[in-house]
Amino acid sequence: MQGLKLEVIPPPPISRRTLELGVRYSPEFACMPLKINIGNFIEALEKGADTIVMAGGWGPCRFGLYAPVERDILNDLGYDCEMVILEAPDSKLAEILKQLKSLGENVSIPEAYRAIRFAWKKLIAVEELERKLEYFLPRVNDKRTAEEIYEKGLADIDRAGNKMEIEYIVASCRGKWRELPQHNGEILKIGLLGEIYTVLEPGANYNISRYLGHLNAEVTRSIYASEWINDHLCGGFIKKSLHKEIIKSARPYVNYWVGGHGRETIGHAVDFARKNYDGVIQIGPLTCMPEIVAQAILPRVSENEGIPSMTLWFDEHAGTAGIYTRLEAFCDMLQRRKQGNSPSLHPA
User: What is the pTM of this model?
Assistant: First the structure.
């Protein structure tokens, strides 16, 4: 957005206040991402924003209704703002580029292209740090230092002004992690799958990837933002897409699109099982219909593929104590299973 010569006012990091604002002004049975969005938007408007850029959507998932509902809520609250909705046409990159270019009316096509390429470079760098943290955090003794390296790396990438700076930051963080002393304890491998926003946004899932890292569990997420962009906006043009293989893995458990990432949740569960992961955790916002469908199928996947699974739902009533207790119990069950015991594959 800055590359399109726009003044950008990002909302503050998601906090308890963010969720409280969203809960106060959103429909009671709306799923949690919409409530967090409303809180994000109000906090950004309080900082002086006058325009909101929001993604559109389609299909059985309610995400396609988010933007107009959120716009009406903000208008009813008296906020004088414009909402620009970016629709995501499947595998039509030219269309999304046209929409982005329309935001930066004072830039040329080459300038817009360079801005998008630089944003992509930063996204890849951020995800590289995320993946490395997911690998090193369960293995190192000093977990707090590992997290501080990651947090400083993110801040440095945010400030970076060119490609060389970004590459140096990533290499520097990688080197610092390698220098940290590591323990010899057993490492669990857990696949994290489910609804895309809840999987990607730590503020929506109570940072469970970090907490699992503190329990010496290496987490692999089923989806990263760059993969979604590559698969759904670019048709697999940027890098080899594994989306078709994941959909194939979902058969015969689910043979049709159920909206959102429900089918992908099942496909990734099968894929993680066949890659000898120790377990999978499905997460999503309470009342998410595609993930409810997937949850109903997961016990059969667990039984047939031999991989323990657990489902966690998130809303404003969720609390860290209850969530972390369940994660600890799940990891304890996986450890005992690795040591030769065989408890239930699908704990409640």
Answer: 0.90
